[in-house]
Amino acid sequence: MPNGTFVTVLIGVTVATVIYFIFGNNKQRTQQQYYQYSTKRYSEPENTNKECSICLVSLRCKERYMLPCEHEFHKGCIEKWKNQSPG
């Protein structure tokens, strides 16, 4: 019966490995998808009292960018943040 126990353990390890590779890499894929956002140029100043969340300077200038989530930042600030973020 020692061979039966070995086979059972081997099958268990194999199944655990497969489950890890299917679901364990999900966090990495989610982070990669998050960093693949696109920006669009913000052309009309609706509310001039808004501030860039990164540098805390007014967003009155035309270098304002809006992400798909509709958060607004200065173009230079969001590009610098993206380049410094791990991913």
UniProtKB/TrEMBL annotation:
<dbReference type="InterPro" id="IPR001841">
    <property type="entry name" value="Znf_RING"/>
</dbReference>
<keyword id="KW-0863">Zinc-finger</keyword>
<protein>
    <recommendedName>
        <fullName>RING-type domain-containing protein</fullName>
    </recommendedName>
</protein>
<dbReference type="InterPro" id="IPR013083">
    <property type="entry name" value="Znf_RING/FYVE/PHD"/>
</dbReference>
<keyword id="KW-0472">Membrane</keyword>
<feature type="transmembrane region" description="Helical">
    <location>
        <begin position="6"/>
        <end position="23"/>
    </location>
</feature>
<keyword id="KW-0862">Zinc</keyword>
<keyword id="KW-0812">Transmembrane</keyword>
<dbReference type="GO" id="GO:0008270">
    <property type="term" value="F:zinc ion binding"/>
</dbReference>
<keyword id="KW-1133">Transmembrane helix</keyword>
<dbReference type="Pfam" id="PF17123">
    <property type="entry name" value="zf-RING_11"/>
</dbReference>
<feature type="domain" description="RING-type">
    <location>
        <begin position="52"/>
        <end position="86"/>
    </location>
</feature>
<keyword id="KW-0479">Metal-binding</keyword>
